[in-house]
């Protein structure tokens, strides 16, 4: 499918299209191993083939919370089969992937009352319970298509996001999502900037700024064999 990532702009901010040719998603409990992997990858790239690259190392914060203090990935399917149904294209065996780099405003997060932050997200901060009454501009309402209690979700993705950064420079969320079709991402991003169904924007953009984003296609095992 066409997985072009368009630049988006709403009343609360932009979602720039930063592009890219190769994305490697690696996971390890030992960060130094990830650093070594990045070294090996870059060392084995053809001479003069890389114009620029970025390696981002993430960490687990407070047992799986975002730096905003909210639990991340609450709506992820719990079992392996469900995740595969959501994330894998049945025809190709591959996955479409979104990456976004979000920089959090830690001062806003620190100063705002929990009630305000919860209204922006649409969930309680301590245990991630969905609010029965929430604004149409809350993050939950933008992602599901409405602000009804346990609104039926028209699309789903498998989230693999992680916090990253440092206090001395910038910190936030490196958002990663997998889906069987890029249309799943399109629905969500359009609703974040008020470009689908209505003109409302996602309140999550009051506490975080998106500075990079693009789509990728991860080939399935059979497709990868053709490259060998």
From TrEMBL:
Its cofactor is heme b. It comes from the Eukaryota. Keywords: Iron, Metal-binding, Oxidoreductase, Peroxidase. PROSITE patterns: DYP_PEROXIDASE. Residues 65-222 form the Dyp-type peroxidase C-terminal domain. GO terms for molecular function: heme binding; metal ion binding; peroxidase activity. GO terms for cellular component: cytosol. InterPro entries: Dimeric_a/b-barrel, Dyp_perox_C, Dyp_peroxidase. PANTHER family: DEFERROCHELATASE/PEROXIDASE, DYP-TYPE PEROXIDASE FAMILY PROTEIN. This is Dyp-type peroxidase C-terminal domain-containing protein.
